[in-house]
Amino acid sequence: MPELPEAETIRRQLLRSVRGAVITETRVLHRRMTRNQPRRPSLRALTEGRRITDVGRHGKMVTLTLDPPATLLIRLGMSGQVLVCRDDAPPGDHTRVRFRLRGGEELRLDDMRMFGGVQAFPSADPAAIPPLAALGPDALGLDFTREHLAATLRKRTAPLIALLMNQSLVAGLGNIYANEACFAAGVHPLRRGGDLRRPDHAALHNAVRRVLAEAVRLRGTSMRDGLYRDLDGAPGDYQRRLRVYAREGEPCLRCRTPITRARHQGRSVFFCAKCQR
DNA sequence: AGTTGGACCTGACTGC
DNA sequence: TGCAGTCAGGTCCAAC
After folding, report:
1. Along chain A (277 residues), what's the average pLDDT of each consecutive run of 10 residues?
2. pTM above 0.85, yes or no
3. Is A60 a residue of the active site?
4. 3-class SS at A15?
5. Catalytic position from the list A3, A6, A8, A106
6. Torsion of CA A184, A209, A171, A263, to 10 degrees
7. A2 is catalytic
8. Under CATH, which number does the domain A146-271 receive?
9. Which of these, A114, A136, A199, A251, is most buried using a 10 Å CB contact count?
10. Which nucleotides of chain C does any protein CB come within 7 A of?
11. The domain A4-133 is classified under which CATH number: 3.40.50.880, 3.20.190.10, 3.40.50.12500, 3.20.20.20?
């Protein structure tokens, strides 16, 4: 599932493969993918004829900086896949948006479930791009400090797992890494945010960074449903390192207690009832 | 303002 | 074999 590590893997590969390329033609194969784009300026007007000068990321969002100045925002949703291929390669069943590049290549967004999307803005300044400005600090960025985490959780009554996945508080965590970070910190994911104490903040902050950094190193997590693939079509390797996610009933790797699965707001929450308090 | 629950979306899987 | 039901989850929106 595309969370920060998967988005970062794609960002790095895009940087190598499309930086410097000029978009010559933009085609939207399914309208849902551009549901957030205003009629004017249109996606086409903001992308065609512009050069990709940089590829960035904030949380789970991938940004292509264009020249003349504009920004193309890519959200992977839960089944989004970015591909770079020849522009004459036939589109797949789930190919949704195609950006033809000068020189015969093409940047594509495939997305079976269409929770993802693309949106372009007439500025290269992140502060001028509302979806980016609404995000909290990137979970691997310098602004995500232990103090920020503590202030964020203070007085909150929602469960920790929900707060960690709230992108306006800290950007980059989805269900998999939020569950893994809670385990690594030894904190129960359903505790109210405001109930955490200073040692919890320190452990959790440390755990978030450690888990995400390791997942980036292993190029993300690909579960059995096979939805996440990188730019080359290769799966990530972090699924081998999962310690609680999707391990209901299996022994905790620290204490052998069977992992518990609970439900919160329709999402699965995984934890060790003995190691996480 | 913070929190909660449903809707969106499609393919894989399960049980009868 | 076929079909209905369930599950997965990022994000947005309405309701409390």
Report:
1. 93 97 97 92 97 97 98 94 96 95 97 94 95 96 97 95 96 96 97 96 97 96 81 92 94 96 90 96
2. yes
3. yes
4. helix
5. A3
6. -10
7. yes
8. 1.10.8.50
9. A136
10. 7-12
11. 3.20.190.10
